[in-house]
Amino acid sequence: MQTGQGGVTGDIGELVEALANVVLNAIEATPPGGAVFVATYEGRDESQHWTVQDTGPGMPQTVLRRVGTPFFSNRVGGSGIGTALVREVIERRGGDYSIESKLGSGTFVSIRLPRATTKTKRDTASPESKENAA
């Protein structure tokens, strides 16, 4: 996955799925007439930042502390897997994932992924070794 000039490493499908999960959670939490805001930007260190903010009801601190715990869901019919997987995908890449929420004020999710600084073995392999691997 390449974003901005710095880029990030990782399977594009997995990263898109993680971001989509966060956005869908925000949409589901937001009542009719509310709003969901998604922003991306590049940090000074060329890290990539994604933020998602909703105008939903927010969560009390007792619930917020448990968000991301596998199999815990505050939503009827929720599995509690999505947010745990998002956290795992981001942290496996050396990134940061945080959620802020206040009851009555909505929720703000922040994702930071470090700039891609090294190439994978496949990216740096010689043409001969790439042919042999195929």
Automatic annotation (TrEMBL):
Q: Where is the Histidine kinase domain?
A: 1-117
Q: Where is the signal peptide?
A: none
Q: Where is the composition biased (Basic and acidic residues)?
A: 120-134
Classification via Pfam families: HATPase_c
Top-rank lineage group of the source organism: Bacteria
For this chain, one GO molecular function annotation is: protein histidine kinase activity
Q: Which Gene3D superfamilies match?
A: Histidine kinase-like ATPase, C-terminal domain
Region (Disordered) residue ranges read 113-134
Xref: InterPro entries: HATPase_C_sf, HATPase_dom, His_kinase_dom, Sig_transdc_His_kin-like_C
Enzymatic reactions: ATP + protein L-histidine = ADP + protein N-phospho-L-histidine
- Keyword Flavoprotein set for record: no
Assigned keywords, A-Z: ATP-binding, Kinase, Nucleotide-binding, Phosphoprotein, Transferase, Two-component regulatory system
Q: What is its EC number?
A: 2.7.13.3
GO BP, one example?
phosphorelay signal transduction system
Q: Which PANTHER family match?
A: PEROXIDE STRESS-ACTIVATED HISTIDINE KINASE MAK3, SENSOR HISTIDINE KINASE
Q: What is this protein called?
A: histidine kinase
Native organism taxonomy: Bacteria, Pseudomonadati, Myxococcota, Polyangia, Polyangiales
